[in-house]
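May I ask for a sample protein chain and its fold as tokens?
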Amino acid sequence: MCFLGALDAAQGRTGGYNIPDTQLTIEASETVVKNLGLKLNVAREELDFRYTIVNWNNEGERTGQEVIDAMRNTAVKLMENVNAV
């Protein structure tokens, strides 16, 4: 399962690689990357967190469930932070 593709589908977007990413996609990528404890890898020419999440996604061919779990766990942590305020 493609992380960025899942975000596009959730936003009702189609067009694959031919459309620019939305601000939501950019920010969600950064949030999930940070939640996973990942960092930008300059040696791999990761220019922003979308590259990081794609590399994580493709590493070992993550399953769809792993991608969903990463998104869900991030959302749960964000909601815990909101509810704690």
User: Anything to note?
Assistant: Residues 3-84 form one domain. The first helix runs from residue 3 to 10. The chain has a mean pLDDT of 87. The chain has one domain: 3-84.
